[in-house]
Amino acid sequence: MQFESARGYNSFRLFLLHITTVECMRISQGFFPTVKEVPADAVIASHRLMLRAGLMRPLGAGIYSFYPLGFRVMKKAMEIIREEMDAIGGQEFLLPALSPIELWEETDRVKAFGDTMFHIKNRPLVLAPTHEEVITSIARSHVKSYKELPQIWYQIQTKFRNEPRPKSGVLRGRQFTMKDAYSLDASWEGLDASYALHEQAYRNIYTRCGLNFFIVGASSGAMGGTGSQEFMVESDAGEDTVALCDGCGYAANVEIAASGAPAAVRSDRGSSIEEVSTPGIKTIDEVSAYLKADLAHCAKSLVYIANGKPAIIFLMGNDQLNETKIQAVLGADARPAHPEELAALTGADAGSIGPIGLKADFTIIADKRLEHADDMVCGANKNDFHITHVDFDRDVKVEAFHDLRVVEDGEPCPKCGTALRIVKGIEVGHIFKLGTKYSASMKATFLDEHGKDNPIIMGSYGIGVERIIACHIEQHHDEFGIKWQKSIAPFDVHLILVNANSEEVVQKSESLYAALRAKKIDVLFDDRATVSPGFKFKDADLLGMPLQIIVGEKNLKNNQIELKDRNTGERRLVPAEDAMAEIEKFLAT
RNA sequence: CGGGGCGUAGCUCAGCCCGGUAGAGCGCUUGGUUUGGGACCAAGAAGUCGCAGGUUCGAAUCCUGUCGCCCCGACCA
Questions:
Q1: Is the CB of A52 under 7 A from strand B?
Q2: Which of A47, A174, A212, A412 is the most exposed, fewest CB within 10 Å of its CB?
Q3: What are the b/e assignments for A209-229, b being 16+ CB within 10 Å?
Q4: Superfamily covering domain A274-402
Q5: pLDDT greater than 70 at residue A178
Q6: Is the ipTM of this complex over 0.90?
């Protein structure tokens, strides 16, 4: 390297000196912007703590800068992901975030993503929200033969989605980091195998990242394909509602969840239907109370319009109609009838509608719980009247019985009967069997052993890296701060020099620091001379390293060092000479 | 995109209703004292009151517009 002047050389030397002397593991020298006060904009625990601990800061709505401490955690999580992806034969790529819009037109996903995809104004480019198109374009230009399959290709890269409403910190951002993987197979059996490999890799990843997770069957939505599962973490901050069985592990989005709620029991009394006066009685609870009929013997009637045709739907008691389930039966355009339509179609208002004496031509469907029900109370299609002793076998021409109801908390699991819990969940991963949706539309084909051209059979597998971090904090924190689990903690230990005025304390802390570094243990060293002990303890709890090593004057007089387990809160004193062994023991378990 | 709220010092916020010199706490700088759970004293630096227009002798304050951010809802591979 040439320098034009001695001054240039000197500043270069200064630069070298600088980078070799700043020790970023020392809080006194590194960048650790912690804050005591709770940021006003943060609502959920992980968001608050990520801001307070200085892991990241917002740059715009749904856009975050990761600061060194936060990035260390990201790297830990990404390394775990890499190891598990590599273990199933994945090969890491780094694909561009910018991609030509023509690529997305080939699969018609410009339209499918709509406003969710960012478009570049002065070039025909988009910011990729995911990478199926790019991967498929690579596959079609290189993969020619079944002999080259299967492949698992992945990357860890920034994704862009123009979320209408970013929220909850990094849980829903406009820019985020995703590990996305794609499997290429020559057969459907091959896809099943690749998919199974990913499912196991994902289980390993979340387990190693210290997350308590569960898996739910999911719809593949706009991704297309033949099957998919979501990996979810239970959290009140979640956006999805899931029915979860602690007995057998059954888990399903409430949109599709079933339960073992008991069906109607026939009385077989054979009573004839009878019209009774129910003045002003509308709701099922009122009907039940007024006629002294058990809720299980009341049928609720709802009118929907689908495809321009009215449908009447019966549910038992206070069961709620599940919109997703009814749309699966009647079609996606199914909607509740307007009040005027109700009156015109049935002759009565909501609350007095029923199966007997319907004027119009209805599609008649009912929830499975009502199959063979008799002795039921229903609306009379005449305001202020109900009909009793309705027998769904005898009196109602039900076209089909479907599971149409919303599962309630505490109902028996459909698989094992244990009480279901309805919980909120955060999606941390999603795996899809894509099939040939992308390879067919983009003509990514291979020649099979018979020389025949076939579209590659694909899978796609995503993990939100920031979501892993946020979920980890959601699951591991207390009122004082984060409790990192060892696997993704930014540092292994947090060394606190309690009192910089004590020569012994300084010496012992410094020698411990050097010894820890020599052992390749990542140590965050609070060596600040101007900060009070209380301040340091609060910071340590906030930052949340798994083990705090506290070197203080009083204990050192007795030749003792204090170790505090951040997770359990347990503190113990160990002889100074045993400290290193105790620390290594802690980290090893 | 609907509903609600907020933009004043680095952070948390008061001041606005009722127009008249720009405020507090925390943080920061300097000096001193302190040192086991977010210390104390003293001195100090720091703000185009989001932006643009309007009303007014005079606008952080009233009016109009606009931008940004947060929350609820819709949406969400």
A1: yes
A2: A212
A3: bbbebbbbebebeebbbbbbb
A4: YbaK/aminoacyl-tRNA synthetase-associated domain (3.90.960.10)
A5: yes
A6: yes
